[in-house]
Design goal:
10 helices, about 280 residues, MetI-like fold
Length: about 280
């Protein structure tokens, strides 16, 4: 068997197009995932709610009650208050929701922390292939909204990387000595400034290696979106092989392109780590 370089050069434009799609999915997914991860990481670190059978039962009960209230509101809107204009009825429901939230406002941070922990538990406990299949095929049936392959891939990578970044952030924040927070409190700084100016910079330096690892993992995970037909790098390679049957050449080129992309990420993170290190 001979290695035909001509097959690689002929396929290179399509492979580069697939690599560009992979980069777009990865960048957008990591941007959204970083935002989700940092928010959930801070919440789960500083608002500690143990996930126990009791808290889980109370959460399920609250969801059942909320669902019953929504169903009762829909029934009342369709029967007894059918004469009320839809806009007025929606405003009334919104005011009721705001009133309930205001009444139980002290429980809102606890509920957010519990929901964040459940989100991390569910996402880390299920394969990304199952997640993208659910979002692409099942979610449209639930909400009645069709999602294209590119949006499904980006959204899946956002929620998947967000769960792992959340734990990276939590680990980085917990690794900072408590004396720094106590020093900020002694200076009279509010918690927001302590987090942004004292704890955050120290924790961020410690997160850089693991964040770089997560970026590389997310880039490689984008190849799994082949199952929904997204024209990323792996999908393009598969389609080219279906036409010329040169599996060794094409998969070799695909592997080299992935290696180039991951090496670039590793070098950038090494540079950032070097520039932000504590001397």
């Amino acid at each position: 068997m001979t290695f035909e370089w001509s097959a690689v050069w002929a396929a290179m434009p399509d492979l580069l197009q697939g690599a560009l799609m992979t980069i777009r999915i990865t960048v957008l997914g990591l941007l959204g995932g970083s935002l989700i991860g940092f928010l959930t990481g801070v919440v789960t670190t500083y608002i500690r709610v143990p996930v126990s059978w009791r808290s889980t039962g109370l959460s399920v009960l609250a969801l059942v009650i909320l669902y019953g209230i929504i169903q009762a509101a829909q029934w009342l809107g369709a029967s007894m208050f059918a004469w009320v204009p839809d806009s007025v009825w929606w405003i009334a429901q919104a005011l009721i929701v705001i009133a309930v939230l205001w009444r139980f406002r002290t429980w809102i941070p606890v509920a957010i922390s519990f929901a964040s922990q459940v989100y991390v538990l569910v996402v880390r406990g299920t394969p990304i292939v199952v997640q993208v299949m659910f979002i692409y095929f099942a979610l449209p049936l639930i909400v009645g909204l069709r999602i294209d392959g590119f949006s499904a891939a980006v959204f899946t990578l956002m929620i998947n990387s967000g769960a792992y970044i959340s734990e990276i952030v939590r680990g980085g924040l917990l690794s900072v000595p408590k004396g720094l927070q106590e020093a900020g409190e002694a200076m009279g700084l509010p918690f927001r400034k302590i987090l942004l100016r004292i704890i955050g910079p120290v924790a961020l330096r410690r997160m850089i290696p693991t964040m770089g690892n997560q970026c590389i993992i997310s880039l490689k995970d984008s190849s799994l979106f082949i199952v929904i037909g997204v024209a990323e790098l792996t999908r393009q390679g598969q389609e080219i092989i279906a036409g010329n049957f040169r599996a060794v050449e094409i998969w070799g080129a695909v592997a080299v392109l992935y290696l180039i992309l991951t090496s670039f990420i590793a070098l950038v993170l090494k540079f950032v780590e070097h520039r932000t290190r504590i001397v």
